[in-house]
Automatic annotation (TrEMBL):
<keyword id="KW-0812">Transmembrane</keyword>
<feature type="transmembrane region" description="Helical">
    <location>
        <begin position="64"/>
        <end position="84"/>
    </location>
</feature>
<feature type="transmembrane region" description="Helical">
    <location>
        <begin position="21"/>
        <end position="44"/>
    </location>
</feature>
<keyword id="KW-0472">Membrane</keyword>
<protein>
    <submittedName>
        <fullName>Uncharacterized protein</fullName>
    </submittedName>
</protein>
<keyword id="KW-1133">Transmembrane helix</keyword>
<feature type="transmembrane region" description="Helical">
    <location>
        <begin position="96"/>
        <end position="115"/>
    </location>
</feature>
<feature type="transmembrane region" description="Helical">
    <location>
        <begin position="121"/>
        <end position="142"/>
    </location>
</feature>
Length: 166
């Protein structure tokens, strides 16, 4: 009976199939990283200047606005780390989970921004862009997580016990 390999199973096909979405989201997140960091700094400065900083941070609007900002930074870091290990299915599952969190949390943030600042066309366009980016990031991450899950299952089946010869 063969024991499972202690070394991670590499899947070059997984790296090839997820490369386009990976690079696209990484480059878009790199461009948007500066506004995300600036937005986080503004949110924390606003919370620090407020007399009731804990109540402000717990407020639903602050949570809905700060969650996509923070998860976007985490998604960018996860995609950057995935560039170093593009053939490891477990790394794909973890990295695309952060991207999915960003995508799912940015849709309510865009809707809230559209509801509060919907008078000006610039903010409507920005809100629509955030909602589209969130939906696209969610779709790409779900697809790539599914590919990584199938790759991980395939590698577990290959490293299982050898079939008996009877």
């Amino acid at each position: 009976m063969r024991s499972p390999s202690p070394y991670p199973i590499l899947d070059p096909d997984l790296a090839r199939r997820t490369r386009a979405g990976h690079w696209t989201l990484f480059l878009i997140n790199t461009i948007l990283l500066v506004p995300a960091v600036f937005g986080t700094m503004v949110l924390w400065q606003f919370a620090r200047e407020s007399k009731t900083s804990l109540r402000t941070l717990v407020d639903l609007e602050m949570l809905v606005i700060s969650l996509p900002t923070i998860s976007g930074i985490l998604a960018w870091a996860a995609l950057g780390l995935l560039l170093t290990k593009p053939s490891f299915p477990r790394w794909h599952l973890g990295s695309w989970a952060f991207v999915l969190l960003f995508g799912l949390s940015s849709i309510p943030g865009g809707l809230l921004m559209m509801a509060n600042l919907g008078e000006m066309p610039v903010y409507l366009g920005l809100s629509a862009f955030v909602i589209c980016l969130g939906a696209t990031a969610s779709w790409i991450s779900i697809r790539n997580m599914r590919l990584a899950w199938h790759s991980l299952r395939r590698s577990r089946n290959l490293s299982g016990p050898a079939p008996s010869r009877s």
